[in-house]
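<derive_structure_tokens>
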Amino acid sequence: MTDIFSALIFILLVELACVAIHKRGVRATRVSDVQGTDHTLLPISKILVLAVGGGTACLVIVAASLDQGFWSLIATLLVYLLIRISIALQDVSYARKTKSLRLLEALSAPETATARFAFFFSGPHMLDPYHVTMWLEPLTSLGHKFVVVVAEQKHLANIPPSEAYHRISFAGLSINQRVLPLSCRAVFYANNSMTNIDVIRRNPSLEHIQLLHGDSDKPPSFNPVAKAYSRLFVAGKMAIDRYARNGVQVSDDLFVVVGRPQLKPFETTKKDATTVVYMTTWAGNFEDTNFSSFTQAIDILRAASECDGVDEVIFKPHPVSYKDSNWETVRQRFSELAKNSKIQIRWAEHDESPFELYAKADVLISDISSTIIDYLYAGKPYIVTNPQGFSNEELKKYPSVAGGYLCEQDVGNVGKLLRLALSEDPVAETREEVRQYAFGDLNRPIGAAFREACWEIIGKPVE
């Protein structure tokens, strides 16, 4: 009886393991959130599973009742194991083979067949698809159904679901097959992934609109590949001039000034506590894109926490800072600093967006990046780090710096700059001039220019 019980438990565990393999295969080959496009077990596979599992259980009971011996029981279970695992692996293989067909079904389904536009994204080295999520609200405000198409499987589940759009993945498939609904009139992009060029090449009749994931003075914001797109949506005149200033000749016809539709009206009421927010950019893949002060983070945070009048310091490193070789050291030293500080020093919460932090900050400390330009919209003071030690002449290439207070290369003057920014704020007038230069929609409701520019391309929704 003990042998029968143990054998049945073994069969149950194998079945549970195979179910887990099936579920993992479904997740790994998922092509969309459209109902009916996930892989499912074939009817014949379901019959085989029931037959093999049930048949083996019966054989075990019969063998035990006939006293066929221990090794006979083991042989029966091993044969069952091999057959059942083979069925599970064949199931996963079939899921991969049908992925292309299921993708076409997802793109032709009633839910997606009327999508007016697509948002295409490829970010193989990113854990968080924030390039996508930061644009979902502005794109949803257009009032049209659309699809978000991702090149990597991991991003499919990390994009929040919505009734306004459907999520599509072609991970593991060729970009040369159809990855967009036939109804699309335009494709939006938020980075300069080379996969974008394949999409543009395969869909020459569509409008291809580069949004980028922020307006900054860094090289990605004047990448020569911009000329491949039909339109370049930019925040203001500063973004347009940036290309010419860096020797990238782009036709004026490509630029469309839309402001920054993600931004919200900022609080102007006086708070009881003074908050300093410190946000770093990432080091980039090349020296000319490395503006990050991440390795100086602890010195900057300490100086901010020791500044008179500061009640709270919030630290939000760039989402890919975890790849930095100094990540663990900074994390440990941050914990020690926060533990011994007389004021509150904390990490930004995972769901605390940059735009929420802009509203909380009285002063922002950041690197040359889109962060300071977005924050510039609020008109509040900011401090710019200078880890590369750029000279005044070199800094002319980065006009957003002019509206802030510049750190010394060794960040030794952070405390002094904070006191100045929180009191006299002598840069206020210049900052307003830079603000007007950066944003081309200041005299309009936030997002209005963006919606109008999009509707000109994809049409206005029928009310």
